[in-house]
Design goal:
The protein is an alpha+beta fold and 72 residues long. The chain is built from 3 helices and 4 strands; from the N terminus they run H-E-E-H-E-H-E.
C-alpha cells in the first residue's frame, strides 16, 4: 500500500507538464509524520503554506523541506 493510499482523501496530486503539486488537507503536529512520508516519497523540497499555521516547520526543515508562507 502506497503512502498516498494511506492518506486517503487527505492529499490531492496535480501534475502539469513537468510540475507536480501536492495539496494537503490540514496537517497538524499530531499527523505531520504521515504527510512527511508522502512528501518524501514524491521528493518534495519546497512547501508553500497558504493558510494559518497548524504545524511547526521544524520537522519539515529537518528533513530537507523548505517551508514558505504565502497568505492570500
Amino acid at each position: 500500500m502506497s503512502n498516498d493510499t494511506l492518506m486517503g482523501d487527505k492529499i490531492s496530486i496535480i501534475e502539469h507538464d513537468s510540475l507536480k503539486f501536492i495539496i494537503m488537507d490540514c496537517p497538524t503536529d499530531a499527523n505531520l509524520q504521515l504527510y512527511l512520508k508522502v512528501l518524501k516519497h514524491h521528493n518534495v523540497k519546497n512547501l508553500v503554506r497558504v493558510c494559518e499555521p497548524t504545524y511547526s516547520s521544524k520537522l519539515l526543515n529537518d528533513n530537507g523541506i523548505s517551508v514558505y508562507v504565502l497568505f492570500f
